[in-house]
Amino acid sequence: MKPIKLALIAFAIMATISCNEAPVQQESQYDNAAIENMMTRRSIRKYTAEPVSREILTKIMECGINAPNGQNKQSWEVRIVDNPAVMDEIKDAIAKGHPQMKPEFAHGCFRDAPIMVFIARDTTYPFSAYDCGMLSQNIMLSAWSYGVGSVCLASPVRMMMDNDACKPVLEKLGFSENYELSLCIGLGWPDESPEAKPRMMEKVKFID
């Protein structure tokens, strides 16, 4: 067999082997999966149309309610809206309650997240806002562990609570007496990969 023919056969064999090899996994720069999850999670403002299953959402919420909370009061209530028709109803109410606002801004206040998690705090417990904050962080970090993006939002809460047009949708959420809507979290499969923004470690100081 001629040398050139042997070389071509060898090249074909090598190419076949390399195509069948598993992709090389990039080594993580972080010590463990929990730290990597915290350090790589970003706020997502663009989402795909693919739905997140209620099975995954339930697991995320189980992680959420296992957050630390004062005296185990669990001073939060959570309502999940994954029905597009209900989300449209809420957006329409916000637009109606704020006629001075451009409709596209009112309708875009949820950053087009396909799922919205509404969180209310117990107004009879003075530390409930802190509990809701820790609940929210658990929700967002556990979501990211499944590859689900999130964004924490406060302005839609104000838009829903400063007018009468939104009262019907607030009632539809069905929070208990003495519970007040405090924040909301958008969830969905991310359609962007934003870079990390700088953090200021100089704000952290050891006191001797």
Concise structural overview:
The chain is of the alpha+beta class and 208 residues long. The chain is 42% helix and 14% strand.
Secondary structure elements and their pairing?
Elements lengths: L2 H18 L12 H8 L13 H11 L11 E6 L2 H14 L5 H5 L7 E8 L5 H18 L3 E5 L1 H7 L5 H7 L5 E10 L20
Antiparallel strand pairs: 1-2, 2-4, 3-4
Helix pairs in contact: 3-6
Please summarize the sheet with the most strands. 4 strands, antiparallel
Structure classification: alpha+beta
**What is the subunit arrangement here?**
single chain
Write down the overall geometry. Answer: globular
The helix/strand series, from N terminus to C terminus, equals: HHHEHHEHEHHE
Helix content estimate: 40-55%
Task: Report Rg.
Answer: 24 Å
The first-to-last residue Cα distance is 79 Å
Provide a count of the helices.
Answer: 8
Placed side by side, the strands forming the largest sheet appear as: 1-2-4-3
Number of strands: 4
pLDDT under 50 segments (min length 5)? Answer: 1-24
